[in-house]
Design a protein that fits this description.
Oligomer: single chain
Radius of gyration: 15 Å
Strand content: 5-15%
Bound molecules: zinc ion
Mean pLDDT: 89
CATH topology: Endonuclease, Chain A
CATH class: Alpha Beta
CATH architecture: 3-Layer(aba) Sandwich
Number of helices: 4
Distance between the termini: 44 Å
Structural class: alpha+beta
């Protein structure tokens, strides 16, 4: 961990615990303000989605760009221990995809919010509402 750049270290620190991250709280507040009610971290579903709307059979994941390798500017693979990170990220991505497919097979609709998208809250709100109402 001491080899991480300060930026990556702060990402790592912000991810300890894995849930109730800042982007996730942001998304929760946004959806709640629109009058939707949801369950959190449903362990009984593949990947225990961050927000679950049982009646609508819809699930939302809020993915950290770094851990889930969004491919955007803030998800760059660290320059040190590259092999280690690459392997770790591959596993994360494979797990994400498997969970998504399993949910779809069970008849759920899945929406992924990327951490960097929470910086454009109006656009994000639009897309989330579209997902929830369609
Ligand atoms: Zn991103």
């Amino acid at each position: 961990m001491d080899r991480l750049t300060p930026e990556h270290r702060s990402w790592v620190m912000s991810r300890i615990g894995g849930k109730d991250t800042k982007p996730e709280l942001f998304v929760r507040r946004l959806i709640h303000a629109e009058g939707y009610r949801f369950r959190l971290h449903r362990k009984s579903l593949p990947g225990s989605p961050d927000l679950v709307f049982p009646g609508r059979k819809k699930a939302i994941f809020v993915h950290g760009c770094f851990w889930h390798q969004h491919g955007c500017r803030i998800s760059k693979v660290p320059k040190t221990r590259t092999a280690y990170w690459t392997e770790k990220f591959e596993r994360n991505r494979a797990r994400d995809e498997k969970n998504r497919l399993e949910l779809v097979c069970l008849g759920w609709q899945v929406f992924v919010v990327w951490e960097c998208e929470t910086r454009h809250d109006q656009q994000l709100k639009h897309r989330i509402l579209e997902f929830l109402t369609c």
